Amino acid sequence: MSDEDVMEDFILERGENRKKILDVGCGDGKLLIKLAERNKSSELYCVDLHAEYARSNIERDGYSHRIKCITAKAEDIPLEDRSFDLIFCLRSLHEFSDPVKSLQEIKRMLAPDGEAIIIDWRREAETGVREKYYGKREIREFMEKAEYDTNNIKIKEVNRFNIVLYIQDTRGE
User: Fold this and answer.
1) What 3-state class would DSSP assign to 148?
2) Could you read off the pLDDT of 66-97 as tens digits, one per residue?
3) Does some domain include residue 69?
């Protein structure tokens, strides 16, 4: 099983029994299709600057009635505040023009006690593509600037990836 498969399985497991799920930077939409197959009652959304690519796969696989595709930048997502109990971003953070603003948007839409999962290649990852990947410390700094509660941020390096898990704790609000 590849590293990418392990990361997808992690998201699929975390997505079980969730009511409302958002994929930010969904690419081809195939991971959201897998979530739709597992979660028959979840409301599913995907956002990407090029959402037509995901939309065509979602329509082809017969899930256009279950998955809503939105064409938008990760820095400006036209969805409601505090409305998703799971938001994930898989291998996309490095693509966003403003990672801090993107993380602010994710936090804004995260419901009380909701989870955000950000998985992206580590700075040292050899992907064969010349991209700017972030280190663990940079991601933590982005999240601090985006006003995440640092007590609820867990960042783990696994092989070529940084895995970030954040649980929105609203008991103190």
Assistant:
1) coil
2) 999 999 999 999 999 999 999 999 999 999 99
3) yes
